[in-house]
Design brief:
The complex is a heterodimer of chains A (292) and B (499).
Chain A: E1 15-20, E2 23-26, E3 30-31, H1 32-51, H2 70-94, H3 97-101, H4 104-121, H5 123-126, H6 151-160, H7 185-197, H8 205-216, H9 222-225, H10 251-259, H11 275-287
Helix pairs in contact in A: 2-11, 4-11, 6-11, 7-8, 7-10
Chain B: H1 19-29, E1 36-37, H2 50-68, E2 85-88, E3 93-96, E4 99-101, H3 107-127, H4 130-135, H5 137-153, H6 156-164, H7 169-194, H8 200-208, H9 214-234, H10 236-242, H11 245-248, E5 259-262, H12 264-267, H13 290-294, H14 314-325, E6 333-336, H15 338-346, H16 357-378, E7 383-389, E8 396-397, E9 403-413, E10 419-426, E11 432-435, E12 441-442, E13 444-449, E14 453-463, E15 472-481, E16 487-495
Antiparallel strand pairs in B: 2-3, 3-4, 5-6, 7-9, 8-9, 9-14, 10-13, 10-15, 11-12, 11-14, 15-16
Helix pairs in contact in B: 3-16, 5-7, 5-9, 7-9
Classes of the chains: A mainly alpha (292), B alpha+beta (499).
Chain lengths: 292, 499
């Protein structure tokens, strides 16, 4: 392939010297004004360099004559958004969650705000959508609540936490029936069999009968979990008559929980989140499907 | 863009040179090849004739459509704009007379663009560059600007003389008048452009009272500047150097495509009219240069089909009176196809081949896209439902053994009135629905959809555990307008535990 500039065969026009299968590349000169457009663009770039942040120094950078920067612009836009939100936030501040729930536009705003706050603060444990994690963190989308599923209950739980060390925290202790020797392993097995029977899963009727007696002793299970395992939110005793168990619903899980109960901790969010956010979170969690 | 430099090689009156010849003359006068090409000014001469008249009519029609369309009113009720054609960016709606387009339906715009492209291909393969020659905005506005130029500075020779002459008071006056007129037209063009995006009467009064927003002034300024530069200064440079269309439209051409062409077999050898009849036998072309003088891109059509030719047909109008005066047959330059021209030269029978694989294919694509558009438009519904299945969690087991799935249901109400819809869950019997914010639980629910917007509901559907037999069951939501029974349906799934 010749690379020397040549004249094209038929019209005598200059070529670049490139040829592919007999097709020659003409070297048609660029119109002059096109070059001027390029120069104008270069001039524009220089102006842009001077007006806007451009050249980095060893410490810092040239800030530009206009003094514009993207962070200030973002801060300004966030400020505008906050001002726009304030007409809702002011109302959320002064009203109770039950009142907010009755106003559709306010509820919509609170659910959106709650969703964002949930993603920032709650998802690490409770998972997206409040699905929870069996054995660790409760599902917030189902209809079983250990500490109550009414709006006010949820709000209180978020605000002060569970065994969080806050003076108003939700607090209870299930005895270590197995570890401290109150119940022997065989008795615990019977109790577990009885608990399984509440959801129709028992295999040994005799054990169920023995377990029922232990369950019903006044200082044992019935004191908190109630008759037939209905559960009470006030002491935070979960129902045992559903198949939804925070720490697992198999016999081995139940035996383990009676022997040496696992006691979950949730932090208090008051002080970390403002009052409006806690209310919005309560409304959002309530809306996940299980709210009472 | 120096108006004085490149015109020296043009000899007035007797000999007219094409841009190509002038460039060659400039190149020959310099030692070595220049990297950059000088701009050679084109001074198109006024011409009258069949195609010029047609071009004026097309120009008038297109400009009338452009300027009048935004002012046509179309009543859509109190809460909607009453402009017939409007692209409302702020409210995300497109209006075209009785059609209202939502952002979700932007495929209509895609369809129109596909139709425009294929239509252009079809027309080009049949009749060559009629778009370039008659309808392209660059051609229309350049024609208009040239007309203004002619009114102020005179015809070809007067303009050449004016540009060559010294800067006298009269020259200044003419130049200032011309550019002022151009700018006025450019401003009207840029001003009309924004009327397609905001209400025309409002923006006109806002504009002149200083109440319009920054964007309005910016875009009017931008389109004023581009119109002035492209139609006043750049002209044929746009077609030759900037526009991609001339570069690839030859792909639609074949030997049966109608082009503006010179009948070389008949015209050559060209030469000055030999009145005595003593010289050698000459062709019909008397080399009067009229075809070059009227050409808006400054080419010589007798050089054959070339990139710069926009197919405006003005050279036909220039040549035919000359032929008539000499008593020779018309259309030495005319619309013809390569195949017909070859047959004509040999005296063989000629025919047009309109039905060719290429035109049939373009025609079929055009018809298919057009029919699909009409079908979609005719069956366009005023209500739509979109359903998003909640993915976190996919399903929730409830205390009574039931299984619950969550859905975000969006109802698109394209009417300007509030509507009540009945929402039903189809696919598995015995489902209970619940809406967040509404307490009731039922097998169907009534939902309110706000006018002209999307209303979103969070919906929970619960099914008895015994009825959930599959990990993923096919289900759907059916939406029915309770007053006119219009329906919309959307498929989704109901998830359950692993089996």
């Amino acid at each position: 392939m010749p690379t020397k500039a040549e004249k094209e065969l038929f019209q005598g026009k200059p070529t670049t010297g490139h040829e592919w299968d007999g097709i020659q590349e003409l070297d048609t000169p660029l119109p002059k004004w096109w070059v001027y457009v390029l120069y104008a663009c270069i001039a524009w770039a220089v102006v842009y360099f001077i007006l806007y942040p451009s050249v980095p120094y060893f410490t810092g950078y040239f800030k530009g004559v206009l003094g514009w920067d993207s962070r200030t612009e973002v801060a300004q836009k966030i400020g505008e958004a906050k001002r726009a939100q304030s007409r809702y936030l002011d109302r959320i501040k002064t009203q109770s969650t039950d009142e907010i729930r009755r106003e559709p536009d306010l509820l919509n705003f609170a659910l959106a705000g709650g969703k964002a706050a949930f993603a920032d603060n709650c998802v690490p444990c409770h998972q997206a959508g409040g699905a929870g994690h069996v054995g660790f963190f409760p599902n917030l989308a189902d209809d079983v609540w250990i500490w109550g599923g009414k709006l006010a209950d949820i709000e209180q739980t978020i605000r002060f936490g569970i065994r969080s060390g806050h003076e108003k925290a939700r607090m209870n202790v299930m005895p270590n029936f197995g570890v401290d020797g109150t119940l022997k392993p065989a008795q615990i097995d019977d109790v577990a069999e009885y608990v399984l029977s509440l959801t129709g899963r028992a295999n040994d009727p005799a054990a169920v009968e023995r377990g029922a007696k232990i369950y019903a002793e006044s200082d044992k299970c019935i004191a908190c979990h109630g008759e037939k395992g209905v559960g009470y939110a006030t002491p935070g005793a979960p129902p045992l008559n559903t198949r939804i168990f925070l720490y697992g619903g198999n016999k081995a899980d139940i035996v383990r929980q009676v022997t040496k109960p696992q006691l979950g901790v949730m932090p208090a969010w008051t002080g970390r989140l403002d009052d409006e956010t806690i209310k919005m979170l309560a409304l959002y969690v309530h809306s996940l499907g299980g709210g009472k | 863009m120096d108006a004085r430099a490149p015109i020296a090689p043009v000899k007035m009156q007797d000999e007219v040179q094409s841009v190509r010849q002038q460039k060659q003359a400039i190149a020959a006068s310099k030692s070595g090849d220049s990297l950059y090409a000088e701009r050679v000014r084109v001074y198109p001469k006024a011409v009258a004739g069949k195609f010029r008249a047609l071009k004026w009519r097309v120009l008038g029609l297109l400009l009338a459509i452009y300027y009048v369309l935004p002012w046509i009113r179309w009543d859509r009720g109190p809460s909607a704009p009453d402009q017939a054609v409007l692209i409302d960016m702020t409210n995300r709606r497109g209006y075209f007379f009785f059609i209202e387009i939502w952002p979700q339906e932007v495929f209509y715009l895609t369809g129109i663009l596909v139709l425009a492209a294929v239509g252009l291909f079809l027309v080009t393969s049949l009749a060559g560059r009629v778009w370039c020659g008659y309808a392209c905005p660059q051609t229309v506005w350049t024609d208009l600007f040239m007309w203004v130029e002619r009114r102020i500075e005179g015809d070809r020779n007067a303009r050449i003389k004016l540009d060559k002459g010294a800067w006298t008071g009269a020259k200044w006056a003419r130049k200032i008048a011309k550019h002022a007129a151009w700018l006025a037209i450019a401003f009207a063009t840029g001003g009309a452009w924004i009327m397609y995006f905001v209400d025309a009467p409002t923006v006109v009064s806002d504009f002149f009272t200083g109440r319009a927003d920054y964007y309005t002034y910016f875009f009017v300024g931008l389109f004023t500047a581009t119109t002035y530069l492209l139609a006043g200064w750049a002209r044929e440079q746009v077609c030759t150097y900037m526009c991609p269309w001339p570069r690839f439209q030859s792909a639609m051409f074949d030997e049966d495509t109608l082009i503006v062409t010179y009948q070389k077999w008949r015209g050559e050898p060209r030469g000055k009219l030999d009145k005595a009849g003593t010289g050698p036998q000459l062709g019909d072309c008397v080399d009067c240069g009229q075809c070059v003088a009227v050409c808006p891109t400054g080419i010589d059509i007798r050089d054959g089909n070339q990139l710069e030719c926009i197919g405006c047909a003005l050279c036909i109008d220039a040549c035919n009176p000359v032929m008539a005066k000499l008593g020779r047959a018309p259309n030495l330059i005319g619309y013809d196809t390569e195949r017909r021209m070859a047959a004509r030269a040999k005296g063989e029978p000629m025919r047009y081949r309109i039905l060719r694989p290429r035109t049939l294919l373009y025609g079929m694509i055009f018809a298919a896209v057009g029919l699909a558009m009409v079908a979609v438009l005719a069956t366009r519904s005023d209500a739509e439902i979109n359903v998003l299945h909640d993915r976190n969690p996919l399903f929730v087991a409830l205390s009574d053994g039931a299984v619950r799935n969550g859905y975000t249901v969006k109802i698109l109400n394209k009417e300007r009135a509030e509507r009540i819809f009945r929402l039903e869950f189809k696919g598995i019997e015995g489902a209970k629905m619940r809406v967040v914010g509404l307490v009731e639980t039922a097998s169907w629910i009534e939902l309110r959809a706000d006018p002209d917007t999307v209303t979103t509901y969070q919906i929970y559907v619960s099914l008895d555990g015994a009825k959930v037999r599959e990990e993923r069951a096919d289900v759907s939501f059916l939406l029915t307008d309770i007053s006119n029974l219009e329906t919309a349906t959307r498929h989704t799934w109901f998830y359950g535990p692993k089996r």
